Structure prediction request, 232 residues.
Amino acid sequence: MKAVNKTRIFAATLLVAVLVFCNIMPAEGVSAASKSVDSGLPVSSIDKVAAKIKDVDKYYKFKSRKPDTGDTEKKEEKTYEDGDPIDYSEDDLRLLSGIIYCEAGSMSEQARIAVANVIINRMNSKTDWKHVNTIREVIYDDKWGVQFSPIKGNPSSLDLAMELYDNLSDYKDKWQYKQMKNCISSAKKALNGEKAIPDSFMYFNGSIESSKEKCESKGKDYIVIDHHIYFE
Prediction:
């Protein structure tokens, strides 16, 4: 009888050990996030989410209601690449760099420029966004509710990003330094007319699938860049 009990105890112990081992083994879905850990950089929440996205390549890079003719391609190329620089102050650059850092700091340059483009597009709009005429007004606009979540809180994520901007030299050997420098570079490029999205795109978010369905049902143009969808 004692031998039977010992056998059962051993079997139960072995089962628990197997379950614990399975739970601590990394899943295949987090391989992309693991790269950030291996590189010594902290894994941001957006990287963790992105690592779980399946079949990213299935997302359209651009959809147009217009037929794919030579003339259309020329117009789209001009919309994307040509732009007039705008006059901007140090405060404009600081704010724009800060919001890019919060919204797309760990993404590609194209995504960072696209975030800046949305803000500049709203600033230049003469229709729905005619009540905002500066970068500051766009970022802190709350006419229809808070438009950019990093402004929430006290201090907000944007406040902390701008504090980083103001004291950047203190972070020279840290990952935040390079990330903010990239955001400042992208902000300057956008302010000098570089575009990743058309002038008509006024929105972006991370809800790619649901926003894509809404755009398609309403016949609106959109583009997916990294972990954001940008649309009219």
Observations:
- The CA atoms of residues 13 and 179 lie 48 Å apart.
- The chain is about 55% helix and 5% strand.
- The two ends are 75 Å apart (CA to CA).
- The chain has one domain: 58-231.
